[in-house]
Amino acid sequence: MAVLLTGGAGYIGSHTALTLLEQGEDIVVADNLCNSSEESLRRVQEITGKKLRFYQADVASRSDMEELFSREPIESVIHFAGLKAVGESVEQPLRYYRVNLDCTLTLLECMAGHGVKNLVFSSSATVYGDGRPPFREGDPTPGCTNPYGWTKLMIEQIITDAAAADSGLSAVLLRYFNPVGAHPSGRIGEDPRGIPNNLMPYIAQVASGRREKLTVYGDDYPTPDGSCIRDYLHVCDLAEGHGRALAYARAHSGVEIINLGRGQGVSVLEMVEAWGRANGPIPYEIGPRRSGDIPVSCANVDKARELLGWEARRDVEDMCRDSWNWQRNNPLGYEK
Ligand code: NAD
Ligand code: UFG
Fold first, then answer.
1. Rounded to whole angstroms, what are the CA distances from 60 to 38, 54, 70, 107, 159?
2. What is the atom index within ligand 2 of the atom nearest the CA of 289?
């Protein structure tokens, strides 16, 4: 029996594929490569010495997915596929709603048609909006500030409704905080297209000389050093969290929402310092605030500990060291 990873060629999916292969799972990946490269999966197989099966498929396409589900003995699904750039979602809201919702609806229909009952979904801390951190899973989610976030809230609702109508369906909705870092081999990592939006890949590209300096977006927030605080989490810890969530989904039914973070806030300036300790200093300047940023985002991680027996093990310096190892070995990402 196999686990299907939709979007499994991407950043988090490829690290999860690696972890699950190492745990002895049989892995099938469906990805249309719109934001990734098949090279990530070639390297996952090289690192683990194990094979997976790849389908270049559009998860929103019923015919693509029917073909996959009829050929493969799928028993569980981890659903990563979708578009994820917050700023782009504001500029192209219909594309984000179309892709993210269609992928999920097609997947749920195929799962129902083929009797597949276990699902883990990539949600996001963005659903907490500008609520009061540390965020707990039961906190209200009154709405999001961008279409990307709304797609995550809508998909959480769709999966919850599907599970209410099918008592056999088991779903774990994982709300990730800020995944960063790379596999310690330096062979797989985050490969953003164009100028990175996110802090860690931007810092890494400054360190490699591809960007001149980091701009810290605001030092006048109500935080101890004035820069924004986030709950950064090593992508290998996150991948291990998926292994636990899968085991949980297999053993239960119904829906659980679970935060995955470290439960520790780190400011932008603290991250720049940690990078300097791990890898040497980078140039930066203070700039204006970025629109839409909240001052503090941080998880309460009690539920992950209690239900999954999972806790992040890697610290901020591990995240910086592994990001740099990936960046300096692959200055242009997966491009040759
Ligand atoms: P990613 O872009 O690297 O991976 C997503 C993958 O989905 C890509 O490989 C892309 O090619 C694929 N994809 C997109 N549309 C598809 C389609 N129609 N059919 C098939 N494949 C398709 O992103 P990631 O950082 O690995 O994120 C994985 C998931 O986690 C996403 O759902 C994202 O929204 C969510 N998430 C990410 C973060 C983060 O900071 N990286 C935070 C919270 C949640
Ligand atoms: N930042 C800078 N300079 C940069 C880039 C980022 O100062 O060049 C700051 C941001 O202002 C923010 C912090 O670094 O204060 C983190 O920013 P990221 O863009 O790395 O992460 P966000 O918390 O804004 O967003 C991330 C994901 C979203 C997800 C959200 C909540 O990118 O997809 O976490 O989970 F929705």
1. 19, 16, 16, 7, 16
2. 11
